[in-house]
Amino acid sequence: MLSIDYDDLRNAFEFVSAGPPREHHAYISLVSGAIYWLSSSQDLEEDVPDNVEDSKFYLEVPHKNELQLGQKMALAFIKEALPDDYNTVANFFRKPSAYRRLKELLQAQGLLEQWFSFEANACNEALLEWCEDYKIVLTNTPAS
């Protein structure tokens, strides 16, 4: 059974999710649990095995969008916290800079810290579920 440190997984997940899908990658060795990082836009100067993209030996860390943690998560928060602004926020996502506008709205409403907490909890829950799906044992768990 594969065992990894949750903090290492979360860091890899944050890296993968820092750009658009397919820009950054992280792979977990199914043998050792080591995590290898790759980027199509940055030279990371990391030694990466030649077969790192082979799913027989490595598991790719998902991007936040694969775990429904992008627009859907933001709209779920707005539906709960600011239901009257749901359509406004949904329209934010039709143009670039949606998250900037979302955060500006939340700041103006005094809800930015609540958003950050909601986002962190949603990410933790989604990653824990992903680990369960792939039978990954965590050597620690996220702080509540």
Measured as a percent range, the helix fraction is 40-55%
**Tally of structural domains:** 2
The ordered string of helix (H) and strand (E) elements is EHEEEHHHHE
Q: How many E strands?
A: 5
Order of adjacent strands in the largest pleated sheet? 3-2-4
Mean pLDDT: 91
The biggest sheet amounts to: 3 strands, antiparallel
Gross morphology: elongated
Strand pairing plus helix content: what structural class? alpha+beta
Beta-strand portion reads 5-15%
Low-confidence stretches: none
**Total DSSP helices:** 5
Spatial extent as radius of gyration: 17 Å
Describe it.
The chain has 144 residues and is α+β, with helices and mostly antiparallel strands. It has 5 helices and 5 strands, in the order βαβββααααβ. The chain has 2 domains: 2-67, no CATH class; 71-119, no CATH class. Helix content is 44%, strand content 14%. The strands form 2 sheets. The protein has a 3-stranded antiparallel sheet, covered by helices on one side. The protein has a two-stranded parallel sheet with strand order 1-5. The protein is elongated and about 50 Å long. The model has no long low-confidence stretch (mean pLDDT 91).
Keywords, separated by commas or semicolons:
144 residues, alpha+beta, 2 domains, three-stranded antiparallel beta sheet, two-stranded parallel ribbon, elongated
